[in-house]
Amino acid sequence: MAVRTLKIDDKDVAVEAGATIMEAAQEAGVQIPRLCHLEGLSPVGACRLCLVEIEGLNKLLPACVTEVWEGMVIQTQTSKLQDYRRMAVELIFAEGNHVCSICVANGNCELQDVAIEVGMDHSRFPYRFPDRGVDLSHERFGIDHNRCILCTRCVRVCDEVEGAHVWDVGSRGASCFIVSGLAQPWGEVDACTSCGKCVDACPTGAIFHKGETTGEKQRDRDKFAFLSTAREEQQWTR
Ligand code: SF4
Ligand code: SF4
Ligand code: FES
Predict the structure, then answer these.
(1) What percent of the chain has pLDDT over 70?
(2) What pLDDT, on a 0 to 100 scale, did the predictor assign at position 80?
């Protein structure tokens, strides 16, 4: 097994060749902010919150999709990165309609957690107030596109873990949105097994259990890592 040795925030770490910076950071006990990344799902590098500085490079690289190389010297918490992350979070808030006080995820939202972590108290960007819909056609779940940050965790978990492929990304650029089935109401998509994995994976209040209050919200995100390990090691019982 080839090993790569590197430094992250002045900590020495050795990881298997092919590991990502995110995985190496985890090994070193360094926490890098992330929104699109979820252990157990393939990384996509969509949110850009995990950008890090690498000595000798004049551009920032996303930790979740960049493989380590020998002798890398990485910084994850410089003031440049903190400013950048704050700006990225402010843009996410300005692009959607996030009214935390009336959101089912209030107090249990990864976007909120990151906003607090980067010290955001308001967005310096003009709020766009997009006109987006809410789909309550599914018997048990709902999706409020106003709170969707296009992280694609729902798309990946449904495809890679559940194997149902209910979700996709529709359109392009600023008008991108998450679609169910062939742009059908969620409740009409036969492929949906109602497993609830997309509800667990969603980092915000965009996908939710119907009738769930903020206090009742529970998410078990560790189960994807468990499921993908079980799949790789063929631990299934059926
Ligand atoms: S999804 Fe998170 S950030 Fe957005 S309104 Fe809900 S609690 Fe606030
Ligand atoms: S619905 Fe949730 S999980 Fe899916 S892309 Fe939007 S924020 Fe991400
Ligand atoms: S966590 Fe790396 S780009 Fe989103």
Answers:
(1) 90
(2) 95
Burial of 10 (0-12, 13-18, 19+ CB in 10 A): exposed
Distance between CA atoms of 100 and 106, rounded to whole angstroms? 5
Give the model's pLDDT for residue 221: 63
54 lines ligand 3 (CB under 6 A): no
pLDDT at residue number 238: 39
Give the residues surrounding ligand 2 with Cβ less than 6 Å away. Answer: 143, 148-154, 178, 201-204, 206-207
Write down the pTM of the prediction: 0.89
CB 178 within 8 A of CB 202: no
CA distances for 129 relative to 47, 165, 184, angstroms: 20, 30, 24
Q: How far is the CA of 51 from the centre of ligand 3 (A)?
A: 7
